[in-house]
Amino acid sequence: MMEHPMIPDVALVDNSEQRTPLILVLDSSGSMYGQPIQQLNEGLKLLEQELKNDVIAAKRVRILVIEYGGYDQCTVHGDWKDAMDFTAPVLEANGTTPMGQAITLALEEIEAEKQRFKQAGVAYTRPWLFLMSDGVPTDQWEQAAQLCRQAEESQKTAVFPIMVDGASAEVMGSFSRNGVNGVKMLKGLQFKELFLWLSASMQVVSQSTPGGTAQLPSTDSWASVPV
C-alpha cells in the first residue's frame, strides 16, 4: 500500500522562521466544572493575546490544544497554528479523565509536526508538552507515562506537569523524568498567572537557539511545590 506524502503546511512555506512547538494537554473532566474551567478558558485567551502581542513569538510559537474529558474522549482543537493565527478554544467541563489517551495522542502530534518542520526545512526548538489535571486518570495511563518520560529523556520534548487541587502528585510526576520534583502545583485557581508565565516562557524560548538553553521566568506567582 502506498503511503500518502504529508501535505505541506502553508504556514511553514510562507514563514520560514524557526519554531517553538507548544502542545497543551488540558483536563476538562466534570470536576473542572464552574470556576476552574472558567478560569482556565480565561487563561487560554490571555495566552493567545500575549503571544500575538509579541512580534517574534507570534511568528515562532506553534500551538495545539488537546482537551480530554467527556466519556473517555480526547479532542484535538484544529491543527497546529502559529501563535498569530491561533484562536483559544472554549473548553467545557464534563465526564472522565482519559489522561493516558491524551498523552499518547500528544506525543504522536509532536512527532508528526517535527516531520513537517523537517520537510519544510524549518528549524525548531524542543517542543513543550504542557499537561494539566485536577484529578486522577480514568484510563490505562502507565504506558503513556513511560513513553512521555522516554520522550523527555531522549530530548524529544520538554514536559511540564501542572496539578490543580484534586490531582495526584505521584501520578503527574510519572509523566516527567524528574518525577514528583518535576510537578508544579497551581495555587488556588491562578490560571491567569500560570498562562502569563507560559507566555513569557514561550517568548524567551522562541528567541533562543535550537539546541541551546534558555533562562525561564520564575514560577513563584502561581506555583507551589506539591507535598
UniProtKB/TrEMBL annotation:
Report the SUPFAM superfamilies cross-referenced here: vWA-like (SSF53300)
What InterPro entries does the record tag this protein with? Tellurite-R_TerY, VWF_A, vWFA_dom_sf
Extent of the signal sequence: none
Q: Which domain of life is it from?
A: Bacteria
Ranges for domain VWFA come to: 21-164
Q: What is this protein called?
A: VWA domain-containing protein
Task: Please name the source species.
Answer: Proteus columbae
